[in-house]
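In the design runs reported in the main text, the only information available to the sequence generator was the tokenized backbone. The following block is the verbatim input for one such run; it is reproduced so that readers can re-run the procedure and compare outputs position by position.
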């Protein structure tokens, strides 16, 4: 085309200008094309991995390497592709309910709160399960209710029904295994968790499901779910399994509540009795021990006192045997020294002075006046 333009140009000078302009256009076009190609090459070669993730690089679909957070390069034009896996994020799966909005004004999708949920949110829930939502609002609510009940309704070992809602929190510990060993990780976790939980609830009683066995059921579910996922080589680490609620069906819930209240009152009375027992029995044991110790002390004291009296008597007897009169006199004096201080009014008569003049002043032999002495 440019040759035709030059041939039709009669002026040689104009032809030269056209040729020169065309050469410049070709040069600029090549530069622009090279720049565009370089920008495309650079754009398709650079990628960024966020701090909470790791990048799994594939070359023509085959795994090549795993990259840490930051800027990285890969082969351009689709030769290598990158899948970013959130290995440092704790993810969760909910069963029997869904959290629509978290925070202070949290909102949940549950059987009892369907009237508070919009039709769009109900549609989204059904679509998440790869099902087609019903068009009618009432039919849609019944569809959602049926789907939720299929998750939380369980049969216990004693043939009772329990409503069990729970959460599974997990992390991806091996992004390569997570991507290539299981086709649909979320569905695999949900199927495995439901199988484990139904087996545990089905092996226990209704009381173990809703009251006394909840903590043990959580621990068992976590361990068994981890074992099952490890058998799949899924690259998933189960952080925790939490029973959100575990109750009897709503129609019989009041009767179960009354039974639980009666059991709590029974436990309270038993605890009060045990507390009183723990207070009174040690006190009685202490008092008995104290009484026994006092009796033992008194017995020792009396025995020692008696032994002392015996020793004293034997010594006196020995002295009496050696000098009876002196010992008799000493005992008499010792006895009188103990007795006289205890007597308030005392009259002491000296036998040697009975015939003295002082006593003769009293007519001790005279009879009382006015009659005979009796």
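Verbatim output:
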């Amino acid at each position: 085309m440019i040759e035709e333009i030059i041939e039709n140009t009669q002026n040689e000078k104009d032809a030269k200008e056209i040729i020169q302009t065309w050469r410049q256009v070709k040069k600029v076009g090549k530069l622009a094309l090279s720049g565009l190609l370089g920008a495309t090459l650079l754009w398709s070669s650079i990628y960024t991995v966020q701090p909470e993730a790791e990048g799994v690089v594939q070359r023509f679909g085959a795994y090549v390497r795993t990259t840490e957070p930051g800027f990285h390069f890969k082969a351009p034009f689709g030769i290598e592709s990158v899948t970013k896996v959130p290995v440092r994020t704790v993810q969760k799966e909910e069963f029997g309910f869904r959290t629509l909005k978290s925070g202070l004004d949290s909102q949940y999708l549950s059987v009892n709160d369907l009237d508070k949920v919009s039709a769009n949110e109900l549609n989204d829930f059904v679509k998440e399960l790869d099902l087609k939502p019903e068009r009618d609002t009432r039919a849609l609510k019944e569809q959602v209710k049926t789907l939720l009940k299929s998750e939380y309704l369980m049969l216990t070992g004693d043939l009772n029904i329990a409503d069990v809602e729970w959460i599974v929190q997990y992390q991806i510990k091996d992004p390569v295994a997570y991507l290539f060993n299981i086709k649909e990780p979320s569905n695999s976790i949900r199927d495995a968790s439901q199988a484990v939980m139904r087996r545990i609830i089905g092996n226990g009683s209704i009381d173990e499901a809703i009251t006394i066995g909840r903590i043990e059921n959580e621990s068992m579910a976590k361990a068994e779910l981890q074992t099952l996922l490890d058998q799949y080589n899924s690259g998933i680490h189960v952080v925790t399994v939490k029973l959100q609620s575990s109750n009897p069906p709503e129609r019989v819930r009041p009767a179960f509540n009354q039974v639980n209240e009666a059991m709590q009152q029974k436990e309270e009375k038993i605890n009060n009795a045990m507390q009183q027992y723990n207070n009174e029995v040690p006190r009685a044991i202490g008092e008995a021990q104290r009484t026994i110790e006092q009796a033992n002390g008194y017995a020792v004291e009396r025995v020692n006192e008696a032994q002392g009296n015996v020793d004293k008597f034997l010594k006196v007897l020995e002295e009496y045997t050696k000098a009876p009169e002196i010992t008799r006199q000493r005992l008499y004096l010792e006895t009188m020294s103990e007795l006289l201080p205890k007597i308030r009014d005392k009259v002491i008569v000296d036998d040697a002075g009975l015939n003295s003049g002082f006593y003769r002043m009293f007519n001790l032999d005279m009879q009382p006046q006015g009659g005979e002495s009796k």
